[in-house]
């Protein structure tokens, strides 16, 4: 372990200098969700690709419905149906003077038509009052013929979605650096793209250590506790955008731990361990990993450090295995591990994805507390808090103990007390990191 006391910023800078974005790959659209585009996507077709109706109704000529009212409707001859997926009326037919075509939403505007009148503006071909809906073609095929009474006029292009009104060939659809979500996948599919070039979501293996750990659902015996860290950190990795794999708790045996980590490297772009990094006789992460890479893998190895922060003083960072897979070793106390994840692991995941490391917003907030908050001199403290955006205030929840996981579950922010602050009085302006 290094004897140097590292600052939070120095440790983060060291991590980000070593972690590089993953190499781009071409993925099918469903697999690209959550990934980051590495190149601009330019539109090659118009969207919509043709003039089409935005309503169920009748395609008409403007002059034929001019001045139409319910009392004096325009009576038009229905010459056929145009459904979504049709090329038009077929057989070269077009809407001529005194004619109309029944048209469905999304169907192409037939030749000769200039506008669409919604079915609610007509009698639906029934010869009665205003129609509430169009009769299904399968139930009333005769609706494609006969007459329709139109009760309102329509302007040119009314209820028509014009060709290219969304995007046109040559338009920039998506910029490089865009995170692919459901709307982006929808757009890519709509313009005909089946694959896209992206940086893949990083694969993160989360592993907790400690012979005292029992999987939830198991039986607690004397001195044992449930393993919560691996579940929380795996969820946090997924929340950050990674594909996360949780490994069951490994007992306090250095060789077992090292073998387990080496087995996981085949599916890891980043390894995160929790526990076993302090100064106790059974802190096996240091024992197992301190010399990794020194002989067999030049340039590798994990450095264990003390940071000027609370919670989270003991930390480890380095690389392991033939591909120098980054490894972050976090403390074992639940709050320490989660705070460490937010400060160091989340930025590393974002960097692997090719995104800016800092994505958690920060804000200035007025401290609301019953008494002053104390902080050790020379350490940056991170306290759990609840943030009120409307009031611009933040209130601490729970104490400063790094085992208080119940308070962590209630928090939506971290209150940051800088290294030169030893006491924060109620009403003081504080910096907060927003977690939600």
Search tags:
436 residues; alpha/beta; seven-stranded mixed beta sheet; five-stranded mixed beta sheet; 9 helices
Radius of gyration: 32 Å
* Strand residue percentage: 25-35%
N- to C-terminal distance: 34 Å
Q: Could you say which structural class the secondary elements and strand pairing correspond to? A: alpha/beta
Which regions contain 5 or more consecutive residues with pLDDT less than 50?
A: none
Task: Tell me, rounded to a whole number, the average pLDDT.
Answer: 90
**Largest beta sheet: strand ordering:** 1-19-21-22-18-14-17
Indicate the percent of residues in helices.
10-25%
Architecture overview:
This protein is about 20% helix and about 30% strand. The chain has 9 helices and 29 strands. The protein has a 7-stranded mixed sheet, with helices on both faces. A 5-stranded mixed sheet has the order 9-6-8-7-10. A hairpin with a 4-residue loop joins strand 25 (about 380-390) and strand 26 (about 395). The chain is elongated. The two termini are about 35 Å apart. The model has no long low-confidence stretch (mean pLDDT about 90).
